[in-house]
Amino acid sequence: MRKSILLLGLLSVGVLSAWCGRALAPSALPRPVTPRGPLYDWEKVSIQRFKEAAPSVVYITTTEERARDIFGFDVVETPAGAGTGFIWDTEGHVVTNFHVIQGASRAFITLSDGSRHEARYVGGAPDKDLAVLQILKPPAKLRPIPLGTSADLQVGQSVLAIGNPFGLDATLTTGVISALGREIQSVTQRRITGVIQTDAAINPGNSGGPLLDSAGRLIGVNTAIQSPSGASAGIGFAMPVDTVNRVVPQLIARGRLERPDLGFEPVSVRLVARTFGPQQGVMVGRVYRGGAAARAGLQGVGMDGRHVYAGDLIQAVNGKPVADWDALMDAVEALPLGSTATLEVQRGGRRLRVPLQLEAAR
């Protein structure tokens, strides 16, 4: 028995000594760090652009009021959604997507320093999926985001996106412009044209955040993704900054996008095709008395006995072809109110140029 105990003790001491030996072996110590050398230039650019732009990017959270009884007396506020925005000016205006704040009763903005502020709704353009909020008590030092232009963008150039995907604030993703001139649908189901496509990862929560060029300038507002799973599949879409720079000042000044009233009612594409055959353009239906179309001399659909004759078919605006009503409105909305647009019109067998003065819708 004593021999067994002695043998067991010797074995234990041997195992412990071997274990301690391995624990104290030099190979088990932390390894020395291998110097990496300087960062690559393209890494430095991304780091610098993020540092410059991050203070201009905000995190938006919204709440909505819900009644807990059928009479509507017991009302509570519940979280409604979250998204991203960016500082437009030193007065505290913040730009985001309309769908980020749609249906919200209150909105709160968290700045890059972590401070949280209540904001008021200033205005929105649902057809463009853009909205403006304003911080109620804006801090003294706000950093508006630098603006670029979307007129000279090229497929393949580098872009950076900053946002709050899935609530993870201040997230940077990078990529390139994958395509230009894409089309998406707004919350009103109106087609939005001229959209930028990018492979920079965009996920839920990125909506309303900035898409930047390699110079750190705003070139688009991240708006939508195309994905079967609802997560990034490398196909994201951004509203071009030239549209944003045209719409946002109107939202700040008037709370809405002031659109031209052309003074006529278009004929639906299906009705045109059924009655007159397939046509490329917008057919004038009813012309409103005293409106812009009437003053320009446009002619709508009419009747001659039992014969229905076609209205003027608008096929281009200032030389730019328009295939449907959305394209026509996009063309005239890009022009200043009060200016004159030249419409290329098919009337019978003749092609006419008709000047039409753009006036604001009432």
The topology string of helices and strands comes to HHEEEHEEEEEEEEEHEEHEHEEEEHEEE
Fraction of residues in H or I helices: 10-25%
Number of domains: 3
* Largest sheet data: 6 strands, antiparallel, barrel
What Rg is obtained from the alpha carbons, in whole angstroms?
A: 30 Å
If classified by CATH, what would the architecture of the largest domain be?
A: Roll
Q: Within the largest sheet, what's the order of strands?
A: 1-2-3-6-5-4
Shape summary = elongated
Summed up, the helix count is 7
Classify the secondary structure makeup into a structural class. Answer: alpha+beta
Can you describe what's shown?
The protein starts with a helix and ends with a strand. The protein has helices spanning 2-23, 41-53, 98-101, 241-254, 269-276, 292-296, 325-333, and strands at residues 57-67, 75-87, 93-96, 106-110, 116-125, 130-135, 158-163, 171-185, 191-198, 210-213, 218-225, 236-240, 260-261, 264-266, 282-287, 302-304, 307-309, 313-317, 320-321, 340-347, 350-357, 359-360. It folds into three domains: 52-135, Thrombin, subunit H (Beta Barrel); 158-254, Thrombin, subunit H; 260-360, Pdz3 Domain, CATH 2.30.42. A six-stranded antiparallel beta barrel has the order 1-2-3-6-5-4. Strands 7-8-9-12-11-10 form a six-stranded antiparallel beta barrel. Strands 14, 15, 18, 19, 20 and 21 form a six-stranded antiparallel sheet that branches. The longest helix has 22 residues, at 2-23. The chain is elongated and about 100 Å long. The protein is an alpha+beta fold and 362 residues long. It has seven helices and 22 strands.
